[in-house]
From TrEMBL:
Pfam families: ABC_tran, BCA_ABC_TP_C. GO terms for cellular component: plasma membrane. This is Amino acid ABC transporter ATP-binding protein. Coiled coil: none annotated. SUPFAM superfamilies: P-loop containing nucleoside triphosphate hydrolases.
Length: 250
């Protein structure tokens, strides 16, 4: 099984505070990895390291075998690492369909450097339809992006990442801030992408129960350290994890 991303002893210190402490992990290609841990465990900081928003104080980061430690977030996006909140180019006054189609087109231009002729245009439309179906947004295709509910906006962001042919999706608490009714829909989207099987998903989650059914591998951070990794079943039965969550006092 291939390793798509790897960290070796990455550490981030803020002044004297070590937010991520010598973390070495391997993210397996086309698998679903979840990162869990209590408040302040270092999950978001660790994601910032993977996406390039932040550089480690020490240690190295590899993507498909290449050292990307010094690569910017933009360069990493181009390499195929995509983080949902990075999608700043959602145009509020365009429809859902137009937004995704523009992302599909921009990706095609990067790859082939050509203008969209009629046939290509049709291909763009088809690809856009496919992606909207995958994230269950077909019925909102003609809605303006600005009129979407919060959960639908998150789906649109994921659609944009898919349009940009992101190989590694970094999803930072995708259900955060959602109403209870919206949560199942986003979980369905993630399931669907996992089901397709051609992408690697890394997801940060606070709520353990949400990721247990979906994850191939779970990484547990606690006070910046990787205290456990394993299958969901191994993690729920891991005593160190149990005490970190229940008795460790965050
Ligand atoms: N820019 C920063 N400057 C100083 N300290 C920071 C900064 N960002 C994070 N921290 C600290 O680093 C630690 C890890 O924070 P981080 O946000 O990565 O944790 P988390 O696991 O994502 O938490 P949560 O689940 O609450 O989002 C915390 O103690 C936090 O206060």
């Amino acid at each position: 099984m291939g390793v798509i991303m790897e960290t070796k002893d990455v550490t981030v210190s803020f002044g004297g505070h070590v937010a991520v402490d010598q973390v070495s992990v391997q993210i397996l290609e086309r698998k679903f990895t979840s990162i869990i841990g209590p408040n302040g465990a270092g999950k978001t900081t660790f994601f910032n390291l993977l996406s390039g928003q932040m550089k480690p104080t020490n240690g190295s980061i590899y993507f498909k075998g290449a050292d990307v430690t010094k690569r910017s977030a933009t360069e990493r996006t181009r390499l195929g690492i995509g983080r949902s909140f990075q999608i700043t180019n959602v145009f509020p006054n365009l429809t859902v369909f137009e937004n995704v189609r523009l992302a599909v087109q921009s990706q095609a231009k990067v790859r082939y450097q050509m203008f969209a002729h009629f046939n290509q245009y049709k291909q763009f439309q088809e690809k856009t339809d496919e992606i909207l179906a995958l994230v269950f947004l077909q019925d909102k295709a003609n809605s303006l992006a600005m009129n979407l509910a919060h959960g639908e906006k998150r789906k649109l962001e994921i659609a944009m990442l898919l349009a940009l042919e992101t190989e590694l999706l970094l999803l930072d608490e995708p259900t955060a801030g959602m109403s209870l009714e919206e949560v199942p829909a986003i979980i369905d989207v993630i399931h669907e992408i996992k089901q397709q099987g051609n992408r690697t998903i890394v997801l940060i989650e606070h709520k353990m129960d949400m990721i247990m059914g979906m994850s191939d591998e779970v990484l547990v951070l606690y006070h910046g350290e990787l205290i456990a990794k394993g299958t969901p079943n191994e993690i729920v039965h891991n005593e160190i994890v149990q005490s970190a969550y229940l008795g460790g006092g965050g």
